[in-house]
């Protein structure tokens, strides 16, 4: 059981790093959109990053529920 908790905790840490990276990418895209607000490629990239953020947040929520289950 300790192996599973440790695995979930590692996944949790990796997901937090991923969120941090995605937020930085999103900020870069937002900055570029300020100077070129009609660029379709940037809008596509922004949609992709936003989707990746939502997916990663869902993964974090899922992992948190498993960690909470094992710790109680």
From TrEMBL:
<protein>
    <submittedName>
        <fullName>Uncharacterized protein</fullName>
    </submittedName>
</protein>
């Amino acid at each position: 059981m300790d192996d599973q908790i440790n695995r979930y905790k590692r996944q949790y840490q990796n997901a937090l790093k991923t969120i941090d990276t995605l937020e930085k990418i999103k900020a870069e895209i937002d900055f570029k959109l300020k100077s070129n607000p009609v660029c379709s490629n940037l809008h596509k990239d922004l949609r992709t990053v936003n989707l990746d953020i939502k997916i990663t947040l869902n993964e974090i929520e899922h992992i948190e529920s498993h960690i909470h289950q094992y710790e109680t």
